[in-house]
Amino acid sequence: MRLRDYIIRRLLLLIPVLFGVSVIVFALTRAAGDPASLYITERMTDAQIRAVYQRYGFDQPIWVQYVKWLGGVVTGDLGYSRSANLPVSEAVTRFFPATFELTTVAIVIAVIIGIPLGVISGTRRNKPVDHVTRVVSLAGVSVPIFWLAIMLQYLFYFQLGWAPAGGRFDTSRADELYFSVHQWTGFYTVDSLLALNFAAFLDAIAHIILPAFALSYVSLAVIARLMRSSMLEVLGAEYIKTARAKGLHEKVVIRKHAVRNALIPTTTVIGLSYGGLLGGAVLTETIFNWPGLGQWSVSAIRGLDTAAVLGFTMLAAIIYVLVNLIVDVAYAYLDPRIRLD
Predict the structure, then answer these.
(1) Residue 166 to residues 85, 91, 152, 158, 284, Cα–Cα distance (Å)
(2) Residue 318 has pLDDT above 60, yes or no
(3) H or E element: which one contains 146?
(4) φ, ψ (nearest 5 deg) of residue 45
(5) Torsion angles phi and psi, residue 43, rounded to 5
(6) What pLDDT is recorded for position 315?
(7) Rounded CA gap, 91 and 101, in Å?
(8) Nearest 5°: phi and psi at 170?
């Protein structure tokens, strides 16, 4: 099967998955409370309350409400977010770049630190560096992300003053740094570089580094731990022994033969971690006051903004299944033994 046909088939299989997610999430939001309460105030009369129910269709059977909502999703109408005071589609467009930028930096940090740590740990088993790596990995999967975020904020902002407390940029210098920068992508680090505004770039890096590291630490630990296990397994394989018997230098054996094969299972973790970070950066964004999807979703949940909750959840589901598809394609590239059919 050709790669194009495989991707098309997988995209078609995503439809029932997303349909199932939409049914479950819609039912849960309706079970959590009356969606009309968001539009009703104490001063409304009975006639006004009935008008609200009729206007938004809350007086109809739940399956009718679901069909209408799903029809709106297909046409791009996700409803109106009261917490953002915007249509949900516009709110997603506004908040998504901040979350995407944060999670991209976070996964890059996790990969560039986690993979080398795992490789070094696997090739130096039971050496001091291996013990340190295992402690780092164990701490990463044990420490709550909100606690780590608070500790980083306390140490580097309140104690040392090396990094800002939160936000995406220095609001006191907004006119100087960002309002003069054209927003091509919505990513402050990228747009400031495109505008050759290096002061804005450094300010964006200073604001993103702490939340990105806090968000990346769990993924970093899991990647390092899995990479170590994969390296230990690969280094005991027969083809590695054969490569060494041929007289190849140890660095060539590690880089060309061991690392690439050890990356195969690690790729899945990296892909799923990235999808999870995009949909789950709620605590980090809240603590660091990062204006992204996570912070918006918290406001939506607190305000019982069901349209926003549904929109955020469906976006997270779409991102997750697409990342899964990318991981499967990467598998085929890394391991030629894998057949797409």
Answers:
(1) 23, 21, 11, 12, 10
(2) yes
(3) helix 145-153
(4) -85, 170
(5) -85, -5
(6) 83
(7) 16
(8) -75, 105
> How is the chain split into domains, by residue range?
95-290
What the block records as the tokens of 14 is: 């995503």
Which residues are paired to 182 by β-bridges? none
More confident residue, 191 or 182: 191
Report the C-alpha gap between 110 and 221 in whole angstroms: 8
pLDDT, residue 112, reads 92
Residue 160 has a CB neighbour count (10 Å cut-off) of 9
Report the predicted TM-score, pTM, of the whole model to 2 decimal places.
Answer: 0.81
DSSP result, 100-120? HHHHHHHHHHHHHHHHHHHHH
Only one residue has tokens 């709550």, namely: 144
The yes or no reply on domain 95-290 and CATH 3.10.310.20 is no
- DSSP character string of 209-231: HHHHHHHHHHHHHHHHHHHHHHH
90: helix, strand or coil: helix
User: Tell me: the pLDDT tens digits for 225-275?
Assistant: 888 888 888 887 777 777 778 777 777 777 777 887 788 778 878 887 887
User: Could you report how far apart the first and last alpha carbons of the chain are, in Å?
Assistant: 5
d(CA 5, CA 17): 19
- Does the pLDDT at position 38 exceed 60? yes
**Long-range CB pairs of 196-203, under 8 A, 24+ apart, other chains included:** 200/169, 203/169, 203/170, 203/173, 203/177
